[in-house]
């Protein structure tokens, strides 16, 4: 699998850290990068694997009124850290695709009133891969919104884990937060999911949920009755389950390229 297809799907400039303004930027082959999105700017950022690194860390600071779209693609089995700090009236939208047994930690600090953070992610583990995805959303001030939705797939003898935390500080009144983890296992695979909320404010609107289940047997039978093999039926069902996350990627052109990466991975189911 190659992440080059994701990069080639957009007209982007290479980023090695520092301030960014409007346009599309790509971070690659960098193990440790700090980025500042200028006040009032609108920018797109693609973060991809760093060759030969044991850990990739990307720190993002979005200043007042900035809008940032992030696509984060993970194909290598090492540690990945994405740390985002958001000032007032900042909007950050992240799409994350994990197709390796990696350890992925995403942390969002909502530090300014009116900040909005959205993360849609999916992981797919096959064979005997071990993966661990953590998403921490920290509401440190009031009047902020967060939405986290993660979908997981594991097959063979793979093991996946999703750990989610929504923290709402005592002064973070009028917080609106949602967190959802949906997962599907095949064969002997196992997925553990542990979403949680720590709420210290009393004027909030919060919800969270998690599911782990098998594929829809009736849907597979329906497809087999129409001449589709069992393997292809499973593949199509998983494709549809994950595609909803990928195809709504906030950076134009990245969705189709990530779907190709997903299809490569599904060939191993």
Uncertain runs:
none
Order of helices and strands: HEEEEEEEEEEEEEEEEEHHH
Report the strand count.
17
Task: Name the average pLDDT.
Answer: 89
Derived from helix and strand composition plus strand pairing, the structural class reads alpha/beta
Radius of gyration: 19 Å
Question: Any idea what the shape is?
Answer: globular
- Order of strands across the main sheet: 1-3-5-7-9-11-13-15-17
Could you estimate the helical fraction of the residues in percent? 10-25%
Q: What is the terminal separation in angstroms?
A: 15 Å
Largest sheet: 9 strands, parallel
**β content, as a range?**
over 45%
Number of helix segments? 4
- Number of discrete domains: 1
Describe the fold and architecture.
The protein contains four helices and 17 strands. The protein has one domain (4-266). The two termini are 15 Å apart. The strands form two sheets. A nine-stranded parallel beta sheet has the order 1-3-5-7-9-11-13-15-17, with helices on one face. It has an eight-stranded parallel beta sheet with strand order 2-4-6-8-10-12-14-16, with no helix packed on it. It has helices spanning 4-8, 217-224, 230-246, 254-266; strands at 13-14, 18-20, 23-27, 32-37, 42-47, 55-62, 67-74, 79-86, 91-98, 103-110, 116-125, 130-139, 145-154, 159-168, 175-185, 190-199, 204-213. It is of the alpha/beta class and 269 residues long.
